Amino acid sequence: MTALWYTRCPLPTASGLAISGGFLDAEFAADGIPVRSLRDAAQDVREQHFDHGHPALFRQGGNIPPIWARSRGADTRLIGLSWPQTFQAVISLPDRGLRTAADLADARIALPRHVHDQIDFWRAMALRGVLSAAASAGLAAEALRFVDVEVRESFLTEDRAVDGGSLFTARESARLWSTEALALVRGEVDAIYVYGPVGLQTVAFLDAVVVTDIATLDRGLQVNGSTPTALTVSGQLLDERPQDVERYVATLLRAADHAAEHPDDAFRVFAAEAGAGEEWARIAHPPDLPARLRPTLEPELVGGLQAQIDFLLRHGFIDRRVDLDAWIDPRPLAAATRLADAVAL
């Protein structure tokens, strides 16, 4: 039978737990349905992680590429959201004199520009993170001085991740903001944006000052590329094989429930995927995160995604507004919840 394909980011998700724990393989093996990672395909096929052009693909991860793809007409359906709260911050070096968000006024703030990628999701994340930090101190965007930092290395390299299905290797995760960090060390900029367990490692490595810990701000200011994450599926797959889609999502729900019961195992997966030590994963994420990874369509998360769509349109990362109501299809999650709950009884 035709294979199911998946792609995902190195973020805490039910997909990562289901893949690393063998849940998906076990679910579909008896039917002879292969479940394959996009990372194992050729480089041009792997680019569909961003444009979602594959006709039988599930994607769970950051929200910027799926929003971008949908704005360009990709036939996808949004079937779930989650909120993997994580450390995200604007940081500086001790000798720059930045201590609070108010000090960002007129500081030279790095804004990366990736020149070889379809969608520069990291530029969007850095911009939103910095603007959120500034807003916490009442600073408008006009008070900030951004410095473009050109990044010539692509997000997708020929390297392969070792497990968990993430399209990005530990090396790639560790290098997400290496160009900005070097610009900071060289004195070309005064502040950069970082996030996740590797962001904490960067703070320790540089002996950096956390100017603003965005994860401590109001939840609306925490909305960014990974909060909320988006679970999407190819429209063709959902139309032609709805039961397989429901089974797939039910498997993610069961994997999330397993993580809630085995949080230590979940944190080991989070750390491995991020390319960081487990200690950093436990500091970067709240201790109850393993219990909060079930995909949902809760209004608060939908509202967060709408705010992200508006941000991307306002700042030119997408050219057309995404109709969120038309994009969401609640049927797979509703059916999957019934399946998963029936197994748990």
Q: C-alpha Rg, in Å?
A: 19 Å
- In CATH, what is the class of the largest domain? Alpha Beta
CATH topology of the largest domain: D-Maltodextrin-Binding Protein, domain 2
**Rough shape?**
globular
What structural category arises from helix and sheet content?
alpha/beta
CATH superfamily of the largest domain: Periplasmic binding protein-like II
Question: What composes the largest sheet?
Answer: 5 strands, mixed
The spatial strand order of the largest sheet comes to 2-1-3-10-4
Domain count, please report it.
Answer: 2
Overall pLDDT confidence: 90
Low-confidence stretches are 161-165
Helix-strand pattern = EHHEHHEHEEEHEHHEHEHEHHHHHHH
Q: Helicity range of the residues?
A: 40-55%
Distance between the termini: 30 Å
> What would CATH call the architecture of the largest domain?
3-Layer(aba) Sandwich
Number of helices, counting only DSSP H or I runs of 4 residues or more: 17
The percentage of residues in β strands lies in 15-25%
Q: What is the number of beta strands?
A: 10
Notes on the protein architecture:
The protein is of the alpha/beta class. The chain folds into two domains: about 5-85 and about 225-345, Periplasmic binding protein-like II (D-Maltodextrin-Binding Protein, domain 2), CATH 3.40.190.10; about 90-220, D-Maltodextrin-Binding Protein, domain 2, CATH 3.40.190. The chain has 17 helices and ten strands. It has helices at about 15-20, 25-30, 45, 50, 65-70, 120-135, 170-175, 180-185, 195-205, 220, 235-240, 240-260, 265-275, 280-285, 300-315, 325, 330-345; strands at about 5-10, 35, 55-60, 75-80, 90, 110-115, 145-150, 190-195, 210-215, 230-235. The strands form three sheets. Strands 2-1-3-10-4 form a five-stranded mixed β-sheet, with helices on both faces. It has a three-stranded antiparallel β-sheet with strand order 8-5-9, sandwiched between helices. Strands 6-7 form a two-stranded parallel ribbon. Helix 1 packs across helix 12. The chain is globular and about 60 Å long.
